[in-house]
TrEMBL record:
<dbReference type="Pfam" id="PF01381">
    <property type="entry name" value="HTH_3"/>
</dbReference>
<dbReference type="InterPro" id="IPR010982">
    <property type="entry name" value="Lambda_DNA-bd_dom_sf"/>
</dbReference>
<feature type="domain" description="HTH cro/C1-type">
    <location>
        <begin position="20"/>
        <end position="76"/>
    </location>
</feature>
<protein>
    <submittedName>
        <fullName>Helix-turn-helix transcriptional regulator</fullName>
    </submittedName>
</protein>
<dbReference type="InterPro" id="IPR001387">
    <property type="entry name" value="Cro/C1-type_HTH"/>
</dbReference>
Length: 146
């Protein structure tokens, strides 16, 4: 392996590792959740983190990984040494975050908050995120009956 190829692997592995650490710290996402949201298998992500690939990662997977995490794919492409002259696509500005959600995220990364409290926050968020929503007509029935 050439020195350049090894440097590219290290740079991309560092990019992926940081993206995963941010997803865990800021969003409380597990590796499985990152895989689900990006459409990139855990095995592929683990190979990227280890720099264990013989040929370059597929551009489509790199883009899917980045977009699933809200990252600019140009940063990943730069780590891989791909087409540095190309103009990076503008990433859409994320909508403003609700202040209550920001407060929860701060608590999740605060070292002074107990693990038990962090667990409770994560479980509550998971419950709310995945509970079934009622159809609009069912929700409005309660309002009409009063």
């Amino acid at each position: 392996m050439t020195e350049t190829a090894n440097a590219r692997k290290i740079a991309f592995a560092t990019f992926v590792r940081r993206a995963l650490e941010d997803a865990r710290a800021m969003r409380a996402w597990s590796g499985t959740e990152v895989s689900r949201r990006t459409g990139v298998s855990r095995q592929t992500i683990n190979r990227w983190v280890r720099g264990d690939w013989a040929s370059d990662p597929e551009a489509e997977r790199v883009v899917a990984f980045c977009e699933g995490l809200g990252l600019n794919p140009a940063a990943a492409f730069a780590a891989l040494g791909w087409d540095r002259a190309a103009t990076p696509r503008a990433t859409p500005t994320p909508p403003p975050m609700d202040p209550d959600v920001e407060a929860l995220l701060r608590r999740l990364v605060d070292p002074n908050v107990s693990d038990a409290e962090k667990f409770h926050i994560r479980e509550t968020i998971r419950y709310l995120a995945y509970r079934p929503t009622l159809p609009v007509d069912v929700r409005n029935r309660g309002k009409q009956a009063g």
